[in-house]
Amino acid sequence: MTSYQDLKTSLDAQGVALVAVSKTKPASQIMEIYNLGQRIFGENRVQELADKYPELPKDIEWHMIGHLQSNKVKHIAPFVTMIHALDTIKLLHTINAQGVQNNRQIDVLLQIKIAKEEGKFGFSLEDLKSQLINVDLKSMPGVKIRGVMGMASFVENMDQIRQEFQFLKSGYDQLSDTFFEEASFDTVSMGMSGDYNIAIDEGSTMVRIGSMIFGPR
Ligand SMILES: *Cc1c(COP(=O)(O)O)cnc(C)c1O
């Protein structure tokens, strides 16, 4: 637990936001980190997030970092601050509708597939660009696209991980030049316990760290 403060101090000095990933951990352990000053927590399952929300302080900013099905958005739309894994335009429309219904604007990140491994979620960068041309973002007051998110391959090869993060940062730059010129398109969510230093080197503005803070799951 002492490592939390060192981590936070170092991230603050680098201007990188910290999502403390609390999946599988009980409310009591979340409160220990909350009491050290942490306010942004991340969960990857809708049910677990919806169960924890009422048990914990209301000034926590909850980030949904896991894969999200459209039919489950309604369970978290009243309170979730940011959704990291937007991977279809259909989901964007659903989140917008739920945001409007709850009188909120929900922040989202476009998940881009950067890992060479099979079976990971996310848009391919080229598909995303061609699909965004047909999306009228100005008609979606319930949602705000704040940036991109990606997960590197689970491999030992640090060069490969670095290249995957470079690809995500370059995708972010291209999207910001073409579709999102506003200053609020400001987030590159990449980096976990094992690779966050590489991610920050390559331009991460937000890291999602679980086991380093809470211990192994
Ligand atoms: C679990 C998880 C993390 C954190 O992983 P650690 O290795 O425990 O830091 C980050 N991002 C996502 C999407 C996760 O599911």
Q: Roughly what fraction of the amino acids lie in strands?
A: 15-25%
Mean pLDDT rating: 96
Q: What is the number of E strands? A: 8
Instruction: Order the strands across the largest sheet as they lie in space.
Output: 7-6-5-4-3-2-1-8
Number of discrete helical segments:
9
Low-confidence stretches: none
Q: What share of residues is helical?
A: 25-40%
CA radius of gyration: 17 Å
Bound molecules: pyridoxal-5'-phosphate
Largest sheet: 8 strands, parallel
Report on the structure:
With 217 residues, the protein is α/β, with parallel strands linked by helices. The chain has helices spanning 2-13, 27-34, 46-52, 73-76, 89-101, 125-132, 158-178, 196-201, 211-214; strands at 17-21, 40-43, 61-64, 82-86, 106-111, 143-149, 187-189, 206-209. It has an 8-stranded parallel β-sheet with strand order 7-6-5-4-3-2-1-8. Helix 4 (73-76) links the parallel strand 3 (61-64) and strand 4. The protein contains 9 helices and 8 strands. The radius of gyration is 17 Å and the shape is globular. Pyridoxal-5'-phosphate is lined by residues 21, 23, 44, 65-66, 151, 192-194, 208-212.
In short:
By secondary structure, the protein is of the alpha/beta class. It has helices at 2-13, 27-34, 46-52, 73-76, 89-101, 125-132, 158-178, 196-201, 211-214; strands at residues 17-21, 40-43, 61-64, 82-86, 106-111, 143-149, 187-189, 206-209.
